[in-house]
Amino acid sequence: MSKLIVHGGTPLQGRIIPSSNKNAVLPVLCATLLTAQPLVLHGVPDITDVRKILDIFGKLGSSVQMDYASGVLKLHHRDTHFDACKHHLPEEMRSSIMLVPPLLARFGVARLEDNVKGCTLGVREIDPHIEVFRRFGGRVEHGEGSLIVRCDGPLQATQHWLDYASVTTTENFVLCAATGKGSSVLTNAACEPHVQEFCRFMVMLGARIEGIGTSRLTVHGVEQLGGGEFHFEEDFHEITTFLALGAITGGDVQVRNRTPDNFPLIDRTFAKFGVQIEHKDGWSRAIRKGPLKVETPFTRNVLTKVEAAPWPYFPVDLLPIFIALGVRAEGNAMFWNKVYDGALGWTGELSKFGAHVFSSDPHRIVTLGGNPLSPAVVESPYIIRVAIALFMVAASIEGRSEIRNAAPIKRAHPRFVENLQSLGAKVEWAGEN
Q: CA–CA separation, 128 vs 186, rounded Å?
């Protein structure tokens, strides 16, 4: 069991170069299977899911040259082959489902284990993906412990209106439509920064996409895609995480950020807890003057709220980070997860530090902040930024704490502990397999 040992109470100081967003990198890696031309990707992070996908590529016969030190990946899928009886896509990685469209386009068949999962965030159905595959002409069959998707000839263009703005389903639609026959239209498309980055990569390959950054995408299918070179942006999740770490410990952390246009709502959310964010010369900095304090709403008979939902709402993935700030801030705040029904069950672990958190229902909690906290041993569920949120609270308290089951952090944040240590944090991994 991987756990973080934390000796908290040290204000973090220094500068951080964040990694790329795994939620952009993973769909881009899946999309590379659509082309037989050589590709060079810059800024590929050394995280577990990247290693798993590159391992799949190697087993399929692709040329894979990955330099984890520099983050440069050279790929060539010219000699790639796929055998549905032999090759399995890993069930423990949610992004596996995005390998289905390129396999259909290249080989007319894909095999997927039938209980694909990611983090522990409640039920995450694959029905929306199955519907997309079928609308493009795919045939979905149940095998023994797996799903087989087949298609005779090129995928056929379609129009589709999603039930909700799902990131992965949007990306799967684009992957199907890029080399499909005709023009396809998706309404209620997800438009998160990582979805936009993925679409820009597809355009670099030669895909014809209209409406990037909006909720309506039109994709005109092309016969084939090309190669090229692509540079990933910094991960806005990791930027926010290190800014919050600086704020909660009373330190001064600056994070490189070349996309400040993604941050107005995030900046306003920081301000609700007494933290001002400054963007200057390609760097972002969290400025805290005095203790963390929940902003009093103009309408005084309501609670300050952080409402998380699909972009351009406040990002759901960042909600745990701000719950940690709410626990440490003076005053009370409500946090509302409008997407996942199992995403707030972990907040009971905060009581082990002495925090007061009231669960309103499966989607809403209230932090009753300003209480004295003490070190603790806590258990994280399999959710990346919950492990980080528990670490944040521990890092703000003098004394030794343990964050157990913290390994999911490695799925999104390479060199997380090394970065923290460079800022002065007293933290280390223990119990690693």
A: 13
pTM above 0.90, yes or no: yes
Q: What is the pLDDT along the chain (433 residues), one digit of tens a residue?
A: 799 999 999 999 999 999 999 999 999 999 999 999 999 999 999 998 899 999 999 999 999 999 999 999 999 999 999 988 788 776 667 788 999 999 999 999 998 876 554 444 444 578 999 999 999 999 998 877 788 899 988 999 999 999 999 999 999 999 999 999 999 999 999 999 999 999 999 999 999 999 999 999 999 999 999 999 999 999 999 999 999 999 999 999 999 999 999 999 999 999 999 999 999 999 999 999 899 999 999 998 899 999 999 999 999 999 999 999 999 999 999 999 999 887 899 999 999 999 999 999 999 999 999 899 999 999 999 999 999 999 999 999 999 999 999 999 998 899 999 999 999 999 999 987 5
What DSSP string runs through 244-275? HHHHHTT-EEEEE-S-GGG-HHHHHHHHTTTE
User: What is the rounded distance in angstroms from the CA atom of residue 259 to the CA atom of residue 256?
Assistant: 9
Q: Please identify which residue in the block is written with the tokens 């009886």.
A: 85
- Least Cα distance to 19 among 432, 424, 418 occurs for 418
Of residues 342, 306, 340, the one with CA closest to residue 326? 306
